[in-house]
Write a structure and sequence with these properties.
The protein contains five helices and no strands. By secondary structure, it is mostly helical. It is elongated and about 65 Å long. The chain starts with a helix and ends with a helix. The model has no long low-confidence stretch (mean pLDDT about 90).
């Protein structure tokens, strides 16, 4: 597990470095267009300069979110509240079978409904959404869990 996480971190670092290089080149092209003068090149140059800014914001938000999720995962492991899916039936791809994932989700959702303002129940619900294949609700619920945990810590 330690070796695979090191590989993932190295891959992410490599992608961030490549994106940084790309953002610098794109920024230089935007500045070159603005220096050319004329209405159209200046407008294009400004538009091109916006792209690296958006890219930097997206990379920052994604990495920050990953750190926050890892923090919650570590706390969940320490507290012994991580969902145990080791005994659930799996498809040949390794994903949990749909019926088993749906049953797990129903059980965890009931737990969450009993205590929706606890980051632990929201974290578990986010994981259950993920196992059930609903990625958008998993992300939304994980954001809620992060906010609840931050409020608890302060």
């Amino acid at each position: 597990m330690k070796g695979s996480s090191t590989k993932v971190v190295a891959a992410i670092a490599g992608i961030i470095v490549a994106l940084a290089f790309y953002f610098v080149l794109l920024g230089q092209r935007g500045i070159d267009l603005i220096r050319d003068g004329g209405a159209v090149p200046v407008i294009l140059g400004i538009a091109v300069l916006v792209l690296p800014l958006l890219g930097v914001w997206m990379v920052f938000a994604t990495v920050r979110s990953g750190f926050q999720h890892q923090h919650l995962a570590s706390r969940a492991r320490e507290e012994g509240i991580e969902l145990d899916v080791s005994d659930l039936p799996r498809m040949p791809s390794g994903r949990i079978q749909r019926d088993a994932a749906d049953a797990l989700f129903a059980r965890v959702k009931t737990e969450w409904e009993a205590d929706p303002d606890n980051w632990r129940s929201s974290y578990r619900l986010a994981r259950a959404y993920d196992y059930a294949g609903d990625r958008s609700r998993a992300r939304e619920t994980m954001r809620r869990a992060v906010a609840l945990e931050a409020a608890e810590a302060s």
